[in-house]
Design brief:
Alpha-Beta Plaits
Length: 181
């Protein structure tokens, strides 16, 4: 048996006929035996509280694509920008994060600790994708405003649903998140 965690980023209800009776992974078709829904709409994420420190456990390889090059590192500014962009793409207009606040957050976040390694994942017979798997702890500067800590808390919780970095829809960048104040 395999457990899959899927994130639904739209505010609407799940699609009709969800879940499907079977899912296909390459040539293998498997029966869906059960599912559970834990709704975390954007309003709940936005009001979940501040965070000054966040521990991330990268479950699947995380990487960023920058100017045609891949960066397989938990770079804090890229993490924040990735989450902010994805948040503003899917959140209701009333909950979008202002550019100025996102810049303040990017200026205030830094990598406090990291442990892990790169991992190579075959995408097909010719292409391998390298990503980071392990733990990283992000922290905000003491001077970060209350608004920035609230946004950091919301985005860190959002990371567990949306993933971080490139190719999250293909399973890359899945994370477990532990925020703290």
């Amino acid at each position: 048996m395999t457990l899959w965690r899927l994130g639904w980023l739209r505010e609407e209800e799940l699609p009709r006929n969800w879940p499907p009776r079977t899912v296909r992974f390459g040539p293998c078709e498997q029966q869906v035996t059960g599912f559970d829904v834990d709704p975390w709409p954007f309003a709940r994420l936005a009001s979940a509280g501040p965070a000054r420190r966040v521990r991330l456990r990268m479950i699947t390889p995380l990487f960023f694509s920058r100017s045609g090059r891949d960066l397989p590192l938990p770079e804090p500014v890229l993490i924040v920008r990735s989450l902010w962009t994805r948040w503003n793409t899917y959140a209701p207009a009333a909950l979008e994060i202002d550019d100025g606040i996102a810049r303040e957050l990017a200026d205030a976040v830094f990598l406090d600790s990291v442990s892990g390694a790169s991992r190579q994942i075959p995408l097909n017979e010719q292409i391998r994708q390298v990503g980071f798997v392990g733990n990283a702890e992000l922290r905000l500067l003491r001077t970060a405003s209350v608004t920035v800590t609230d946004v950091f808390g919301a985005l860190s919780r959002f990371a567990a649903i949306a993933g971080i970095g490139a190719l999250t829809t293909h399973g890359f960048g899945a994370v477990e998140v532990t925020p703290s104040t």
